[in-house]
Fold Dispersed gene family protein 1 (DGF-1), putative.
Amino acid sequence: LMVRIGAMKGVVANVTFDGCTWRDGAVLVLLGNAYAAVGSLNIVVTGNTFDDALLSPEGWFPPHTNITISGNRFTVTRLIPRLGLGLRNPSCLAMNELAISNDSAVVLSGNVFQAVRASSRAIQVVKYALRVSWHSVFAVVGNTFHMAGGEGTAIHLEGYTESLSLFVLNSSAVVIRSNVVSRPVKYFMLFLSVFCVESFSTVVFHDNDMQGSSAVFFSSRSSYIYHNSWLQLSGNLCRASPSDAFAVLKSMLNLRDSTVSVSGNQFMSSKDTPTALWIYSGPSHLTNGAVVAACNTVNGEEGANYVIPSVYNAIILTCSDPCTLAASCFPAYTTTASSDGCACTCAEGGHGDACLPVAVPEPPSTD
């Protein structure tokens, strides 16, 4: 079934799929069109069951689009083919590209993703980039991932070689928060191509609970964090330490007036001391950039390793050091951070506990 957004007109357009069952190779395509003649677009997919079926929200969506994918159950035992989508692995939610802008939001919350086959991807962008721009947010909050085989990936962002996997621009955010991965995976979040965050934007990976992995956050190409932007990896729990590192930036990390923060992550390890951050090589661009690592613990005690080229002059803080603003708060939208509880006081335009550039929905209640 294909829903063509380009055919819609009006001040407000609403599309809802509530309590439906999709099975045996069925595909639901939400096909975006940035030029659709709608003032605002609301798409809700809630309480559905996808049993060997595929959900594809794909393309460029018009301004003021809100897509909510919540409370669904996805189970995939095989690759579900879709014309024009070059999947090579079983996936629950997949698209060639997804682009939102101008006060738009895509929120995945309270879903259960179950993949029976090894090397599956729960959420996958295949051909082009995930693009989030102009006061927009892409959020994956409060979901559960059951990935069998130890070789799967929860969030897989591909893109062509040397092109973009992720582009976050102009006071926008990608937030991965309060998710649970119940079994070992190869990666939680994988970027196969360039990862770019610019102009008062942020990527936040916070409060996720996971088992073993090769790496939790893995970028295989160059990363660019420019112009008052922020990459924050904080408050996550690894019940088995990653075999390579928690966060791996395999190629260059380029920083301009921006910050990378890895803080408050907990590792449970019975073997070697885990590495919290591994940056493979120095940058081609480094201007007023900061790398901050603070209070990453192993079995409740300090001692995580870091592999960071000296050119970054990384700031390594212990748990007894006073709170530093850049570890807990988005610097561009924060006026102060308390030294004891790390509470952020937001400047105008900052939202939530960390003063993000856009509001992010809370994870669903577990009561």
The chain has one domain: 2-346.
